[in-house]
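Quick one, tokens below:
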């Protein structure tokens, strides 16, 4: 805890270690302390000091906090607190001890179809909650995550699956802070309509989820591209690899679900998260009840492969028990 003493405190939270630093925020492992030895680990995300005086960044950060405050679902990362310290805003999130899906795939390569199906159902439940949110007046918010990717899926040691990073989520009444003619998000997981900068609805997130699940079961992107320019064209036209590798890895039933999610036009995809969930539930698997245990095993194996003694530096991708996805603005690709 010596390092925590050196880092000091933010609000009520003692900083234990700095986990990483991104283009917009830095992330710390923190502890909320109380009487009689009470301690609760948290993740504290703070706007970079050099950006704290810029109103645009402050509003983006506050917007993320307001959105996450409305969430309340077992498969969505919870926000615990929001405040100011030395005029710099900070956001306190639940601590999910484990790894993100990107790290798990890097260590494992591919996942069994039954586990991929389980992850898909967990994320669809999370998205159903997000897409259906209403404000305090009962008005539908029309939220779209816009950044579904393996780095934003947190896997816990006890088998939890949680969706995080709502830094670029967009609703019907959310002010746009993206320049005209540009896009925000990770190119490989964008829907064609998102890449074109067109209007988005929940079906854009379902396309991104299809890409994520395809990668998890096949071990590579569904897009045939070796350069960024080729990738841009492939995503814009939803030009997929031949389905042979997918069918061999996933089987015909799961293949049919993923290919429908990856259709070029939104009208050809599933109409909603509930529709896609029903299709995934119809994919028969063995040991459905054992999949949370398999998530926990995947986390343990990933951490063992990486080695827990690897130091974390602000300039490198973090290798500690949290996700780099908490860093708004880090790793985003713009088209």
């Amino acid at each position: 805890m010596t390092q925590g003493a050196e880092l000091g405190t933010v609000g009520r939270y003692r900083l234990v270690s700095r986990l990483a630093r991104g283009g917009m925020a830095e992330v710390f492992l923190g502890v909320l302390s109380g009487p009689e030895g009470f301690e609760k680990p948290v993740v504290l995300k703070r706007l970079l000091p050099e950006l704290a005086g810029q109103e645009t960044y402050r509003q983006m950060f506050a917007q993320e906090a307001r959105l996450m405050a409305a969430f309340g679902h077992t498969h969505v990362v919870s926000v615990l607190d929001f405040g100011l310290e030395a005029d710099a805003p900070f956001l306190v999130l639940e601590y999910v001890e484990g790894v993100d899906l990107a790290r798990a795939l890097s260590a494992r390569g591919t996942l069994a179809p039954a586990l991929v199906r389980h992850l898909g159902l967990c994320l669809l439940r999370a998205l159903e909650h997000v897409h259906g949110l209403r404000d305090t007046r009962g008005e539908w918010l029309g939220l779209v995550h816009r950044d579904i990717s393996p780095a934003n899926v947190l896997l816990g040691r006890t088998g939890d699956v949680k969706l995080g990073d709502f830094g670029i989520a967009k609703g019907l009444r959310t002010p746009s802070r993206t320049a005209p003619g540009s896009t925000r998000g990770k190119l490989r997981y964008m829907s064609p309509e998102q890449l074109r900068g067109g209007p988005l609805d929940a079906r854009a997130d379902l396309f991104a989820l299809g890409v994520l699940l395809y990668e998890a079961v096949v071990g590579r992107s569904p897009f045939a591209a070796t350069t960024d320019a080729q990738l841009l064209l492939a995503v814009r036209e939803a030009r997929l690899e031949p389905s042979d590798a997918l069918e061999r890895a996933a089987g015909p039933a799961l293949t049919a679900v993923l290919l429908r999610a990856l259709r070029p036009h939104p009208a050809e995809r599933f109409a909603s998260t509930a529709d896609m969930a029903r299709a995934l539930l119809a994919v028969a698997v063995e040991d459905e009840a054992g999949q949370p245990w398999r998530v926990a095993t995947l986390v343990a194996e990933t951490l063992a492969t990486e080695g827990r003694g690897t130091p974390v530096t602000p300039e490198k991708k973090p290798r500690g028990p949290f996700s780099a996805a908490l860093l708004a603005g880090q790793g985003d690709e713009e088209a």
